Fold:
Amino acid sequence: GAGVSQSPSNKVTEKGKDVELRCDPISGHTALYWYRQSLGQGLEFLIYFQGNSAPDKSGLPSDRFSAERTGGSVSTLTIQRTQQEDSAVYLCASSRPGFGAFFGQGTRLTVV
Amino acid sequence: GEDVEQSLFLSVREGDSSVINCTYTDSSSTYLYWYKQEPGAGLQLLTYIFSNMDMKQDQRLTVLLNKKDKHLSLRIADTQTGDSAIYFCAAQTGANNLFFGTGTRLTVIP
Structure:
């Protein structure tokens, strides 16, 4: 596709359930980023993939969060045993070096 | 990681110029970006500048880079109500991670 695609656009889940968020980056982009944005807040870095290098997981807030990127393309962010404080918009972006990151529209996660 | 800082709020009158400032800490930052986020929307890449430049102009937008002070600014000429949004500064070194500031909420007063 022409842009970064994220699915689902909205997800409501019960506390304690696991969720998977998907990101389809722009074709050919070697870098992929996950951020989250709580209401009225800035961007919180979660994880960064670059080519075949080991991902930078330094932003993951707890071991309930994990992400993978298969075949250097699609990425899935998994949150296990969701908590109410996980409610936020999860943003994915992809880039080629020096061209800036292009963002998807995000997945709005609500934990009830 | 790198620290990128911005002031949180800016208010300007319609028709005036807006200047949004950003500082970063990594002197080896190669690329510096400005993003715009409108209410309820994702982040839109507005403009960018390479570290070997000190100015870039694109229509109403002017980016100034002071590498010595590690200071970046975005000037919006003839600010319109449609410019009301949150503006994020971001810095990147080579193919490494992209670090964002906290965002500056620009309010344009009619």
User: Anything to note?
Assistant: The first strand of chain B starts at residue 4 and ends at 6.
